[in-house]
Amino acid sequence: MLRTDITVAIRDAVMYELAEVGYGRLSIEAVARRAGVGKTAIYRRWSNKLEMVLEIVSDVAGRSVPLPDTGSFAGDLQLIMMIVSRALQHRIASQIIPDLMAEAARNPQIADTLQTALRTHQQAVGEKLVGQAVARGELPAGTDPDVAVDLILGPLYWRLAVSRSKPDPAYLEKLMTAVTAALKSAGD
Amino acid sequence: MLRTDITVAIRDAVMYELAEVGYGRLSIEAVARRAGVGKTAIYRRWSNKLEMVLEIVSDVAGRSVPLPDTGSFAGDLQLIMMIVSRALQHRIASQIIPDLMAEAARNPQIADTLQTALRTHQQAVGEKLVGQAVARGELPAGTDPDVAVDLILGPLYWRLAVSRSKPDPAYLEKLMTAVTAALKSAGD
DNA sequence: CCAGGACGTTACGGTTGCGTTCCGCCCTTT
DNA sequence: AAAGGGCGGAACGCAACCGTAACGTCCTGG
């Protein structure tokens, strides 16, 4: 049986290495070195770099985000924005995510994995968030969950992952009111 | 004197290679191969990969985007969204941009170059757009240009560069009305 | 107590890329 | 006609990885 502690060490090393040099430059040797492990131990578990990264990343990404249910749209929205902004400020995640997104533009397998891992959750969260708000009468009936998700995640991602500015709480508040106003108008 | 046609061939090859394999895996040899050029010709112009890429990319990115001035906020907004969505659907650009953004998280020099090239324009466009709209009374006086830019670019970037969905004109319209509503509420 | 398995280590041949050097060609300048 | 500079091409030594193989060690189960 494969030793669990070794597997964990490899997984950690892959995440670390992925953050440091990116998928493109990630080498099995470097992973083995960092994990304090022989290359053999890695090849015993996965047969290539792609397979290894996909398995590890999709496992991490698959850990489900709790669906929002605070009782009000404002509360749900705030919760989601907190979770997302926290995640995007995480040192490792904030480097791995854009890297894999860029790589996904070239590698269909990575694209699929990311779609499955992220998009599914994203959609579920969006539908629940909007559905609840509509049921409560906080949003008009025609509200499009996809647009809502884009409006919420887009600016956050842009600011935190692309512009890379500081986590300004006043900004988050402005963004929240803006997004709320945007969605309330969707039925017009 | 260095031959201009050779320089052009190299620049094209770099952009192409950058789109195909990304900065991480970009090799001088591959660039030379694709450009139909000796490595010598490249090293005669730049001293390493980073310098070469920075010079070429910042040159391309520096080409100024026209400031919007259609006479109405709705018109300006639509123009910007058209320009951005067109740019993000460009085959080469849509692969290079996310890739360099990811790389920027690791390489301060790339980050600086990108900031300078993109952010400056972005800010200018945002300030002009919002300023004009406020002057016309189309937006409340307190409107934050930074938030406005994030609200416009964020969702577009998310959808086109991250989610990679099709260019849906109905979506663009929905997004436009949503963004307009969001910004009009900013003074509340 | 012993067999088997997972491990780290070392080594292997092969590939790729680096940055440099030298060559001979060709075009321009003088 | 001669000189010089930019060029492509080939080769260099060096380093990093690849994926595989052959050790010897340690731990576990029977």
Secondary structure topology:
The structure is a homodimer of 188-residue chains.
Chain A lengths: L3 H22 L2 H8 L3 H5 L5 H14 L10 H17 L1 H14 L3 H29 L8 H19 L5 H16 L4
Chain B binds a DNA duplex (30 and 30 nucleotides) through helix 2 and helix 3.
If you had to describe this structure to a student in words, what would you say it looks like?
2 copies of one chain form a homodimer. Chain A is mainly alpha-helical. Chain A has 2 domains: 4-59, Arc Repressor Mutant, subunit A, CATH 1.10.10.60; 64-184, Tetracycline Repressor, domain 2 (Orthogonal Bundle), CATH 1.10.357.10. Chain A contains 9 helices and no strands. Chain A has helices at residues 4-25, 28-35, 39-43, 49-62, 73-89, 91-104, 108-136, 145-163, 169-184. In chain A, helix 7 (108-136) packs across helix 8 (145-163). Chain A is elongated and about 60 Å long. The first copy, chain A, starts with a helix and ends with a helix. The mean pLDDT of chain A is 92. Chain B binds a DNA duplex (30 and 30 nucleotides) through residues 1-3, 6, 27-30, 32, 36-41, 43-44, 47-49.
Short précis:
The structure is a homodimer of 188-residue chains. By secondary structure, chain A is mainly alpha-helical.
